[in-house]
Design goal:
Elements lengths: L4 E4 L4 E4 H29 L2 H37 L4 H26 L8 H8 L10 H16 L9 H16 L2 H4 L6 H17 L2 H12 L8 H18 L16 H23 L1 H9 L1 H15 L15 H8 L5 H4 L24 H20 L8 H22 L10 H17 L3 H10 L5 H15 L7 H8 L8 H4 L18 E3 L4 H10 L6 E3 L10 H8 L3 E6 L2 E7 L9
Parallel strand pairs: 3-4
Antiparallel strand pairs: 1-2, 5-6
Helix pairs in contact: 2-3, 2-5, 2-6, 2-8, 2-10, 3-5, 3-13, 5-6, 6-8, 8-9, 8-10, 9-10, 9-19, 11-16, 11-17, 11-18, 11-20, 11-21, 14-17, 16-17, 17-18, 18-19, 18-20, 19-20
Keywords: CBS domain, Membrane, Repeat, Transmembrane, Transmembrane helix
GO molecular function, one term: voltage-gated chloride channel activity
Main location: membrane
Amino acid sequence: INENKLWISDGGIHVHAYEVYACVFVWVCVRLECMVFMQRAVSSVLGLHWICYVTLGVLMALVSFFMDLAVSKLTRAHTWLYEGLHGHVLLQYLCWTPVSFLPLCCGCGFSFNICPSSAGSGIPEVRCILSGAELPDYLTVSNLFAKVVGLTCVLASGTTVFLGKVGPFVHLSTMMGAYLQRIPVINANKAKSPVGMLVVAAAVGVASCFSAPVSGVLFSVEVMGSHYAVRDYLPCFLAAACGALTSHLLTIFSREKGEQTVQALFKTICLASRTHSTLITWALRFTRTNKLLIRILANQKVLYSGIVVFFLASVTFPLSAGNFMAAKLSMKQLLFTLLDQKQWQAVSQNASAPEDNPEALWQMWCPPGTSVFLTLGLFLLLKLWLLVLSCTLPVPAGYFMPAFIYGAAIGRFLGELLAYILPHGMSRHLNPGGYTLAGAAAFSGAVTHTLSPALLALELTGQRTHAVPVLLATLIANMLTRARNRPSFYDNIAIVKKLPHPPSLIRTCPRLSTVQLGQVLRPLDAVVAREEGLMGVQQLLESTSETVFAVVDSHGEINCEIAYAIMGVLRETHLFVTDKGRLSGIITWTESMAPVK
């Protein structure tokens, strides 16, 4: 450029500078006009909030993939180092225990120093947020960062701590959805509630973990309960499908379908699942309410985590008790081997496949000279208490996947036992893999009080012939665990943490529907019966100066079933319900419920 001219040497052409400026200005205007046109076209067809749902699904799938990749690299390095010390028992022990508890201690310290709210599952807190409660630090950037790093460290510890990632990943998804909701062009749409984005994010979290969109949506519906709106159904499916599709494109799945048979006696699995789920729930509440543990966790979280994980690593050391509970296998390998269709007891004596073959991983459950019943029984006995200890660790951790695998072990044990008792089956040869599938769905469904694990088990394995037995087993397990209005696993966590949103009061206290509001609220000065005519309303308006009245079914006693209307009239935000002088629970009034005028 020479002064006000632009020279092009090869063609000998020169253009004045103002002409160049004009061309650039026209080009920029055309580009901006095209972008505005495309934005309007996309917004008119889909709406920017739909693009936000797709973005949420893709982002969470990417986070899940890279997290699994990092955990896989760390686990592979740990295995390589352990196998390289073969023949040196002391060195192998010193390799197994520190490499197991050091990542978890790092994750615990990182989470505690960056954001203490990142510890735990996160699902009970999400339910509280959806109910209208304001929980500080649960949707912040620091919590998101601490949750990702802490969860990666926990998963890198392997099956020593026996914790999963479903619950924390649902929390991560809700945090990501909350930040996408804050985008100005998205937030400008007043018709969309921010609660809807959090519900959609809950479905995306499950779908990204398992690449199962239908199960993710169903899990979101069941776990979120009354906070789920019908209008969020389609966005949940869209975001979950995008997350599952991205996960499928990022990972490689190899599935071989074998002979599938429908077996009887699935109700035995339901009884076992109900017993173990109740025991786990009771043990969790005991450890979370123990005064000594509470005092230790309040002051020495990292030290407590290190001691517990060192104990867990010592118990699961492969050259000790870990040799009889497949301690070398990861969470995915545990589930993969338990779903094997072969009868381990029948073929264990003739097994000669090399251990490097992925198909021979089931041999970890059958050490030389050991019965499969001993290994499965020891796994069920030890993992029960090890899981309870792991749940007390103040780190980001998921509890759904451990419950799913534990239920699979219950089903495998019963399947192998029936195959041993009835070697020729009832009508066909018994398939222990079918019992494993039913046990996983029934136990995890009994712990969480949901039916989505049945569909999740079918989506993960692709076994459609077991659909009816698996669904029946899950239904019966839910029926047994819901008896006498027992709270679910997530409800128990909410109770132990004293979160501001307790479980359903009608479910936990059936007599609540007959408790009179006069016991907890002042008498109403003026009420209007639902059948009241125009003359009655006019007389009421003339006799009082009130401008807001309660509409009741009758002028008699009012029970708690219409408590929301009463609170709307009294303009109260909380209703404290008592039973014989003891606080039974709190009913929270949401701002979306306008008082009746």
